[in-house]
Amino acid sequence: MLNLVIESSCDETSAAVVLNGVTILSNAVASQIPVHQRYGGVVPELASRNHIRDIHKVIDEALKNAGHTLNDMDGFAATAGPGLVGSLIVGIETTRTLAMMFNKPFVGLNHLEGHLTAVLIEDKNDIPRPSFPYLGIIVSGGHTDLYHVIGIGEYELLGRTRDDAAGEAFDKVAKMLGLSYPGGIEIDALAKKGNPEAIKFPRPMWTRKNFDFSFSGLKTAVLNYTKDHPDFILEDVCASFQEAVVDILIMKSIAAAKVKRVDDIVFSGGVACNSRLRALAKIRCEKAGFNALFAPIELCTDNAAMLGPIAEHYLKKAPSYFENIPTNAQSNMHLGQSLREASGSESKHR
């Protein structure tokens, strides 16, 4: 199948033409970082307005780069959630309208599912791909979720953050330190010049017998340290904070992989671009007997091409199956059932 896929869940407007779910013919992305940078974070109203401005441009660019027209498409897909409702609606309604115009199927997709399966896409560098089942961890500005990926469409939620997402913690700590948005990039760059062992920041929830995360306390620890040490070395604070985040992500992932007895651990989401996470995960996972896998950096941040495998999977289903697939914007769309929900022993995750 030849599919046009749209992503507009937050502050990137993206369109991609994907062949058979894994071959990217084009992937156009319009970033809104300059728009939101002055505010230190994403402003929802500005995000949706800029999606309206950019969506036709990225669709035209994606079609031109792929050498195809809308009439060539076999199916259309767009992110239905989770994300900012105003932003999601722009992508969904634009894509659904195109599907109706050309009498082709349309399906709404789960953004998180796209992150988990982006590593399945063909890559010119021939990166290794995981074998099902595998352990998948989504680490971004809005999510830190750990999944047992049984197959496309089959996911077991093992744990998630109870407060800040890892990417959110990066941005908030960066703001504390007077760095610009997005903070993860700034901290990564400065950390390369610092000592990751200079400050012993806590590793939250490591002793808990579950796979949940917490970064709020770590964020507070950084704030308290900078107040108590006004002459702090910026590069050392960045390196030590980053090391704590990376450490807990890898430790929890390896622990979950041992329980699920999988071979591959897939790191995805925007924080999967972090250079320290990429380097340390490969070393520590290999030492523990697992393969640490990452999608190419351009497929880790929000983009339409990462949705290629799931777009193909759901568009191939019988039309009646679409009744079970969301086609309207859903800000808090869930994916998979958590261990707590399955056991009923504790209250459901938020």
Keywords:
350 residues; alpha/beta; 6-stranded mixed beta sheet; 5-stranded mixed beta sheet; globular
How would you describe what is shown here?
Strands 10-9-6-7-8-11 form a six-stranded mixed beta sheet, sandwiched between helices. A five-stranded mixed beta sheet has the order 3-2-1-4-5, with helices on both faces. Helix 5 packs across helix 6. With 350 residues, it is α/β, with parallel strands linked by helices. Helix 3 (85-101) links the parallel strand 4 (75-81) and strand 5 (106-110). It has helices at residues 33-36, 44-66, 85-101, 111-117, 166-176, 183-191, 216-228, 234-260, 275-288, 308-315, 339-343; strands at 2-7, 12-19, 23-31, 75-81, 106-110, 134-139, 144-151, 154-160, 264-268, 291-294, 337-338. The chain folds into two domains: 2-117 and 301-334, 2-Layer Sandwich (Nucleotidyltransferase, domain 5); 128-294, ATPase, nucleotide binding domain (Nucleotidyltransferase, domain 5). Residues 338-350 have low confidence and may be disordered.
> Which CATH top level class of the largest domain fits?
Alpha Beta
- How many discrete structural domains? 2
Overall pLDDT confidence: 91
* CATH A-level architecture of the largest domain: 2-Layer Sandwich
Name the CATH homologous superfamily of the largest domain. ATPase, nucleotide binding domain
Describe the largest sheet: 6 strands, mixed
Rg over alpha carbons = 20 Å
Mind sketching the topology for me?
Blueprint: E1 2-7, E2 12-19, E3 23-31, H1 33-36, H2 44-66, E4 75-81, H3 85-101, E5 106-110, H4 111-117, E6 134-139, E7 144-151, E8 154-160, H5 166-176, H6 183-191, H7 216-228, H8 234-260, E9 264-268, H9 275-288, E10 291-294, H10 308-315, E11 337-338, H11 339-343
Parallel strand pairs: 1-4, 4-5, 6-9, 8-11, 9-10
Antiparallel strand pairs: 1-2, 2-3, 6-7, 7-8
Helix pairs in contact: 2-3, 5-6, 5-7, 6-8, 7-8, 8-9
